[in-house]
Amino acid sequence: MGVTPPESPPELPPESTPEPPPADDPRWLERAQLGDRDAQASLIRGLQDVWFRYCWSMLRDDEMARDATQETARRFLAGLAQFRGASRLRTWSLGIATNVCRELQRKCPRKLAGEPSLRLVRDDAAGPADQAVDREDQAALYRVVEALPDRQREAVVLRYFEGLSTAEAAEAMACSPGTVKATLSQALRKLRGQLEARA
């Protein structure tokens, strides 16, 4: 009588990359500040898309945005031990990205490339028809936002596209909340005028 071979074990699914922890998770932050490379890498994975999106919206060039994102990550790690939690880690890191972008803007002329990468922080509960109208309106809005002076674009992108509060935008821009409000007011007046002219 033949021996029935044992059933082979089912193949294990390939290891999936774990989701990065929330950027403000105090346990991961503490580990990262103490030099834990896995925790540092996880924080960077959780923030790098935010950095790239923001850097691209300010520099509008893929290569420059990648360079700016890498430099933001380098400075983020270099300064992480000094971060004391007075603000959200995301806000603090966007301040680093803002400084990196400003330096690159001084060194290189601003370039226009590809489609706008800006995305409004918005309610995703809208229906398909509303979203289609939103897409058309947003495409026009993105083009006008991208034509704003650098400082006004910083304020608009941080406040309305990255969803920071006025105080958080002020921290990222290294200025007072009053300056952010005044800058936003100037930008919004300009946006309204240009959007009305396009209508």
How would you describe this structure to a colleague?
This protein is mainly alpha-helical and 199 residues long. It has 8 helices and no strands. It has helices at residues 26-33, 37-59, 62-79, 89-107, 128-146, 150-161, 166-173, 177-198.
Q: Characteristics of this structure?
A:
disordered N terminus, elongated, 199 residues, mainly alpha, 65% helix
Strand content: under 5%
Main beta-sheet annotation: none
**Secondary structure tally: strands:** 0
Helix content: 55-70%
By DSSP (H or I, 4+ residues per run), the number of helices equals: 8
**Overall geometric form:** elongated
- Rg estimate, integer Å: 22 Å
Q: Would you summarize the structure shown here?
A:
The chain has 199 residues and is mostly helical.
What is the element layout, followed by pairings?
Elements: H1 26-33, H2 37-59, H3 62-79, H4 89-107, H5 128-146, H6 150-161, H7 166-173, H8 177-198
